[in-house]
Specification:
Blueprint lengths: L13 H12 L3 E2 H8 L3 H13 L3 E8 L2 E8 L1 H17 L4
Antiparallel strand pairs: 1-3, 2-3
């Protein structure tokens, strides 16, 4: 099997790569934190989080803090495993491993 087969299309956009990178080192991140860290627009971030949620790579929790809506994201077990496999494949591809 070729290394390239382990490169996951779900992570081929820099925003999705960023979302997963943040969620791999944090238990969760809310919408505003991701937006600020990644320099993404509301619409752009929303579409990429939806794509990762559709793959079941992240979970989404909506709540209210006071009167303000708050959306928070966490990487799922499946998402963490898929992202690790993706990063391992990239490292092999560039000869790091």
């Amino acid at each position: 099997m070729s290394i390239i087969n382990n490169i996951n299309k779900a992570f081929d956009h820099r925003i999705r790569l960023g979302i997963m990178s943040v969620l791999m080192v944090n238990d969760y991140a809310d919408f505003n934190m991701l937006k600020e860290l990644l320099g993404a627009t509301d619409g752009n971030l929303a579409s990429h989080t939806k794509a990762l949620e559709k793959e079941a790579y992240i979970s989404v929790e909506k709540q209210f803090i006071g009167r303000k809506p708050n959306t928070r994201y966490a990487a799922t077990k499946l998402g963490k495993a898929a992202f690790k496999k993706h990063i391992d494949a990239l490292e092999k591809l560039i000869g790091k491993n």
